[in-house]
Amino acid sequence: MVVKHENVKWVDGLRGLASVSVVVTHLARTFDQILFYPNTGGSPENQPYFLQWPIIRVFVQGRIGIAIFALVTGYVCALKPIRQSKSGNIDGALTSVAKSAFRRIPRLFLPTTIATCIMWVLSQLGAYDVAAATDSYWLITTSPAHRRPFSAAVHSLFREIMVTWTMLQNNYDPNQWTLQPLLKGSMMVYMLIFGTIYMQQKYRMMISLAFYVYFFLAGE
């Protein structure tokens, strides 16, 4: 198997660490929700668990995993066209941006839509009824209920697929709320590269920093 020049091994490793962090977070939310609190009880005198300590808790709460996914997404989208631009292959860079942007939507939409359909089928078969009856708040709120009649269930399926990309919601797979921000971020990266394709690297970095400051001040 030929390894492409654009492949960077540490990106795969970082993506793997982010995935583990997200899985650990979901397990913690399911079986030990108290890890998301400052300590083990309702008063400041209660001593926190080790996993509740500052910094350590970051790896359990999972927010860092989402941030890593966003970072890796932007890096991967920009890597090839920027390399081509720096080497003087402007036409190749523009082609890479166009192809990557065109493929980005189906790469995010198709697998997640299939996952939603699978969850929908399982929910209609009552596979989540037991989970919804537990004392775990996370399981209760993320376990979809089956719909009756069947026409209402079909309508619900198409609605959830749509609102995943419009309202950051999906009752069959709530974790898909991250998809729309990742898609928007990818498209913003493509537009930034397109707009700075003829710039020298140092000026592109300055523009990127200005965009970062702008979105930070805008709360995004």
Parts with pLDDT < 50 across at least 5 consecutive residues: none
In DSSP terms (H or I, runs of 4 or more residues), the helix count works out at: 9
> Structural class of the helix and strand makeup?
mainly alpha
Q: What is the arithmetic mean of pLDDT?
A: 88
Query: What kind of sheet is the major sheet?
Result: none
Strand content: under 5%
Distance between the termini: 40 Å
Report the order of strands and helices.
HHHHHHHHH
Integer tally of domains: 1
Radius of gyration: 21 Å
Helix content: 55-70%
The number of strands is 0
Overall, the morphology is: flat
Supply the key terms.
single chain, mainly alpha, flat, 9 helices, 220 residues
List the helices and strands and how they pair.
Blueprint: H1 9-31, H2 58-61, H3 63-86, H4 90-124, H5 129-132, H6 137-142, H7 150-166, H8 179-195, H9 201-217
Helix pairs in contact: 1-3, 3-4, 3-8, 4-7, 4-8
Q: Mind explaining what this structure looks like?
A:
- The chain has 220 residues and is mainly α.
- It has one domain.
- The protein has 9 helices and no strands.
- The radius of gyration is 21 Å and the shape is flat.
- The model has no long low-confidence stretch (mean pLDDT 88).
